[in-house]
Each structure stands twice: as structure tokens, then as C-alpha cells.
Amino acid sequence: MASRLSANGRLVDIGSHSLALYSHGPEPSSFADPVVVFVSGIASDALNWQAVTRLLGSSVRSYSYDRSGYRNSESSPIAPTAENVALELSLLLDKASIKNPLIFVGHSWAGVLINEYFALKGTEQVAGLVLVDANHETAPLVVNVNDPTLWTVAAGVDVWVAWGTEAEHKLTQEEWETFRSAEATDKYKLIADTEEENYASSFETLRRKGLAQRQPLLGNKPVYVIAGTRSRDWRRLHDAGVAKGNGTEEQRSHVREMIRTVDEKTTGLMKEFLKLSTKGELVFATDSGHFVQLTQPDMVVDGVKIRTSEDVDTNTLELHLVRLMNAGVAGFVVHGSNGEAFHLSHEERSAMICCAADIVHQEGHETRMPLIAGCGAQSTRKPILLCRDAFKSGASHALLLPPSYYGGLITDEKVFQYSHAVADASPIPVVIYNLPTAAAGRDLSSDTILHIAKHPNIVGVKLTCGNTGKHARVADKAPAGFFAAGGSADFILQGQVVGANGTISGLANVAPRACVRITELAAEGTVAEARRLQAVVARGEWIAIQTGFVLLFFHPLCSNCQRNSQAPGILQLFFIPFVEVGQGAVQLLELFIKLGHQVFQTINFRLVFVPDFHNFLGVELPSANIAASMP
Questions:
Q1: Where in the numbering of this chain does the AB hydrolase-1 domain appear (predicted)?
Q2: Average per-residue pLDDT in the chain?
Q3: CATH of 314-629, one of 3.30.1360.110, 3.50.50.60, 3.90.950.10, 3.20.20.70
């Protein structure tokens, strides 16, 4: 007998019978917003996701459902093989008109079920994947969860009590009682037993489809894998069984050996799931056994939110900034010229600056490390307001790009008047930005720059034009204390030769140490080695340009080029946590160049254009949220 359908539930006719679908959270604001679909493991219905959906709250739309034969769903006329379950899931999503990008969250057997769904429907609609101690297709070849000796020792044991789930679950008492009551029904026992009969064969059936040979099946779509601590469950089963007098000593010894090796084997299986995508992350639920969603639902929520939130990810930004400082950068540019700030609200812009300022101060670098905030706009009034806001948020300097909307009407004299008007009102020093491609082609001459530089509150210029002759003239004739920074990793060494104080470069976010090292070699007089490294960096810059990598710039800051100069060099940053340390810097940059096209041509830009990058190129990295990458 079916239970009473809750207010958030409805029956969806999939043709042969109806399935119970439950909606959680607000309706998506558009068809572009991802929604979450929970897929339960074997012998499980929608009830085991209740703690997760409650914690998700209003952050995202999600759906759970009862598979055929469970609780409020009708029985299916076909056997519950993994292929048939995947077919019914696809029919459910279609008949329920769920057309949004899908983030699948699957537990246990759902690792097989979701892959069967991929085999059936493809991955075009899939936006991400969260796997909760899921079954890999090779799992039975590595770990036998149905080992008869284990269950001989655990005979007569209430697994929910023995595992500690009854004491440690995060459901409400009413939810837990409903969960346990559902398992006691004849309807549940019938479908659970039938699924068990089809469980073992489902792995070989999936393996025969050869999905493992077509990786990364999800391309660069994020995959978040949570590994439970299986030894925890088995140890508790063993102890409870021994307390009941179950098993011979030989059988108990066999189970103890299983316990000793299972976590290592499970970790290997979980790592196989990372091959599904170029962006995979593996985390460990050390305080849970197999049912992580019941005992540590917050870990599942973390995986979902990383994939759905476009809020500024300040935690990852902080990690990235510390990494850059450790690589030797000299400062940060937040909100530069590549369009990032236009995708953020006023509050988000301020949050980015505040976050960077806090890190600079916490790390004890406030006396030497500039924090430059982009404040350019198409009027005089707005840049002044942005400069004031940047100052309040903790920025030390403002980066000012000339207006360009009516390029033909903006003369050098008007740029001079504009720059001085902003500098007059700005509470922080101003750095002029010469970037012709972002200013309707206007390329400020050295004469104009030197004329502008006479203002006492204008203290530097970023030259992205690439004209080293202009750079030499400005560096030679500018007022004392004025710094002339290059604006691209393409010409770090060339800039050093003609007197640059540093470079502000987007590529420094990818390879900060390599960029900094060029300046160090130049200062040491090791020109040949500096030239070789400059060639590698320039190739990396070219890959970034060719692949549209520039769209990812977020302008934090970066690298000290001459620590002892009055105006330390600055390297603008880029937002990919790409690990490169010491002698590994060049090798990793070479790898970036080699894989640049094949990796970045597959980027799926959505709304704010920037996907998150973590575990990039197989290196464990923090997750970078979409909005955080676009200050």
C-alpha cells in the first residue's frame, strides 16, 4: 500500500505506469539554471535524501523520486535491471518536462544507473555529477560487498544500529521513523529483493558498453566524488556479529582482512570516477560509512553548491591569492579590463576587493604589496565613485582605462582632462592603463602619458600596447617614483631591458613562478636563460590568446619584478589554481601549452562565461566558482 503523497510530490505517468516525483527548492529562474536530480542506491527510495534537500533549502531546485515499486511509485511491468531503471529515469525527466541542465547526485548503485543513463541519452543535458560512495562498473572485481562470510558473521544484526546510522543520522525523528517504516513493508521487500537479483549482472552489462574507453565522458563538466569509509561499517558489523557469537575464528579473521584492505580498494575505485571529466575532485567522508547522505549530508550539499552557485567564492579566491604570494608576486589587480567587473554587482565588486585586501593584510604584506582595483568607466563621475568605493574596500591604487564609447570624439587632451579629473577626486593613487584594444583603438603616445604623469596622484602606467620604445621613453622621462609596468607576459624580459618596473600579466595566474623567474634572471644578468624562459612563457601567452583564455582573466595581481625599486612591479593575475613550484614551473607551463587547445576549446561558457577549475590536469586543486573567476 502506498504512503500518502506529500505536498511537494506528484505522480508522473511515464507510459507504462506512474512514478512519484518530489520537488524541492524554488522554481528555476530560467531554462539555463541547473537543477539537481537525486538517484538512490539499491533498495532505496527518495527518503534517504531528506537531510540533503533540507540543507539545500532555497539555493537550488532539486528533484528526488521513488523508483518503480517503492513507496508511492507504481510497480513496473519490466524487470529492474540497471538499463531499465535508466530508461524509466529518462522517461520520468521527459514526461515531467525537466529540460534544465541536470546535476545528477547518485549514491551506491546509482554509479551504475547514471552511467547507463549516459549510455542511453548521452551527456549533453548534464551539467555536473556528484557521486556519493558510488559503485564503479569494476567494483565487483575489486570489492565484494556481498561476501557471504561477512554476512555470516553479521547474521541477525540490525545494520542501521550496528553501523551507527540510527544514532548518527541527520534526519528528523519523524523522517527517520518514516524511513525505517517504509523498509518494513511487503511492497519494499518485494522490489528490494528483485533489484538485488539484478544487481550483480548490471556491472558486466555496463562494462560491455565500453564507456570507460570513451573518457572523459563528461568533458570538462565538474565531477565531485565522495568516498565513504567502508571499513567503518564493516568493523561495526564484525563487532556486533562477534558480540552475538556469530562466525568461526577463521570467518572472523577473513572479515578482519577485508576490513584492513577495503578503504584502499575503495579509494582506487573512486579515483576511476575522476576520469569522467577533466575537472574532478575526490573528498573523503571520514565520519561516515556507506550512507554519507544520512550522516554527513553537508558534504553532499557542498558538492552540489560548488556546481550551482554563482556567488563569489571568496574561500577559493583566498587560497589562490596565498598561492600567488608564495610564488613571489608583488601585487594584485582586481577588476581589470577584460570585462569581468561588468558581470558583477556593486556588492560583489566590493567583496572581491575586501577579500584580497584581507589576505594581503593577514599575510603581513600590507607595506609592500599594492592592491590595484580597476575603476575605469565611460564617464568621469563613475570612475570617481568607483575609486572611493575601492578605497573603502581596501584597495591601495586605482587602475584607470580611458573612456572609449565615442572613440572618434576622444582626443589625447580629453584623456588628459579625464585622467586628471579622476585623480583630483580619488582618495587613492591612480595608475593609467594603455590598452588600445579596449579603448576603441586609442594608443596613448609616450608624450601623452608623460603629460598625464605630471599629476601628483597619478603614479604609474600599465602598457599593454607592447611598444618597448614607448616603454623606454616613459621609464626614462617619468617623474621620480613613477612606475611603468608592462601589460603582458609576452614581453616581460623586453620590458625589463628598457626599464620596466614590472609586468601586469594575466598568464601569471597560471604560471606565476615562471613569470617571476624571468625578472629574477634578468636582474641577475643571466640573459640567455631568461630568454629561453621568456620563449616558453610567450608560447603560453599565445595559447591563452588563441583559445580565448583571455575571457577568464579576473585581474587579481601579481608578481614582483624588482623588489628593491621604489615602485615594485606588478603582475596581474589569472584565476586558475595551477600548481607550479620551483623546478616544476617550466614543465607545468609546457604541459599547459601542449594541452591548451584540446582542453580549452571544450569550455562550455554559460552566463558569466567561466567554468570552475579544480583538479586541473590531474593536480589536486581547490574549486574555483564561476563568479569568483569574474571579478
A1: 36-302
A2: 83
A3: 3.20.20.70
What's the fold here for domain 9-308? Rossmann fold (3.40.50)
Q: How far apart, in Å, do the first and last CA atoms of the chain sit?
A: 54
pLDDT number for residue 490: 87
Residue 627 to residue 29: CA distance in whole angstroms: 17
Instruction: Give ∠ CA 401-407-410 in degrees, rounded to 5.
Output: 75
Q: β-pairing, 483-486 with 18-24?
A: unpaired
Contact 16, 76 (CB under 8 A): yes
Tens-place pLDDT, residues 82-138: 999 999 999 999 999 999 999 999 999 999 999 999 999 999 999 999 999 999 999
**Structural domain boundaries in the chain:** 9-308, 314-629
Residue 26 CB coordination number (10 Å): 12
Question: How far, CA to CA in Å, does 469 sit from each of 82, 99, 462, 463, 531?
Answer: 68, 56, 14, 11, 19
Amino acid 522: pLDDT: 86
Q: Closest Cα partner for 389 from 419, 431, 345, 421?
A: 345
Map 375-432 to HEC letters: CCCCCCHHHHHHHHHHHHHCCCEEEECCCCCCHHHCCHHHHHHHHHHHHHHCCCCEEE
| Nearest-angstrom CA–CA distance, 238 and 253 | 10
pLDDT for residue 550? 43
Helix (H) or strand (E) holding 460: strand 458-463
Residues annotated as part of the active site:
462
Supply the pLDDT for residue 573: 29
CA 436 to chain CA mean position, Å: 32
Q: How many CB atoms within 10 Å of residue 182?
A: 20
Q: How far is the C-alpha of 370 from the C-alpha of 368, rounded, in Å?
A: 7
Rg (CA), the chain: 29
Q: Give the three cell numbers for residue 104.
A: 545528477
* Greatest distance between any 2 Cα atoms in the chain: 94
* Cβ atoms of residues 567 and 460 within 8 Å: yes
Where the chain has pLDDT below 50, the residues are: 1, 366, 549-584, 597-631
Pairing mode of beta strands 102-107, 332-334: unpaired
CB atoms within 10 A of CB 254: 17
